[in-house]
Amino acid sequence: MTDVRLEPLAAQHVACVEALLEDPEILRFTRVPEPVPPGFAEEWIRRYESTRRDGTRDAYAAFDPSGAFVGLGFAPHIDREASEVELGYVVAPAARGRGVATEILRRLTRWAFDEAGALRIVLHIDVENPASERVAEHCGYVREGVMRSAHVKQGQRADVGLWSRLRSDPEPPG
Description:
CATH superfamily of the domain at 5-124: Gcn5-related N-acetyltransferase (GNAT)
Strand content: 25-35%
Structural class: alpha+beta
């Protein structure tokens, strides 16, 4: 297991986020607009800081033991009344293949259950992103089905897998 430290996403992470937004794979599988508008990273971080305060969204920067930035973890939607949280994760290109995404999602999952009060957590994963699907499986998420033509980006529609994990689900091995 890769050791990852999460800290609340804040202004000091702008350069890290800007570097991520240069990666075509991250742009391909996320909701980030293309081309990335000027100042997007700063505004995005400001929105997460604001919604962290009202409890409707949250985001974290991830670092390895050496202090190197390795990715981001998100809760783009927190519904406290329904006790449901949507999570997401992205990994910096240099950190891929080392279990970073799995560790980010494990930590976010614990946070969602223990601190955000989730009874149900959902992931929306592009069906053309098998690496992310493997991460979900490793973290005990179950694929509920495919939402056809659910994501629109640059005029193109994509199918998205709906994955979930319940507080009552058994802990995955490892």
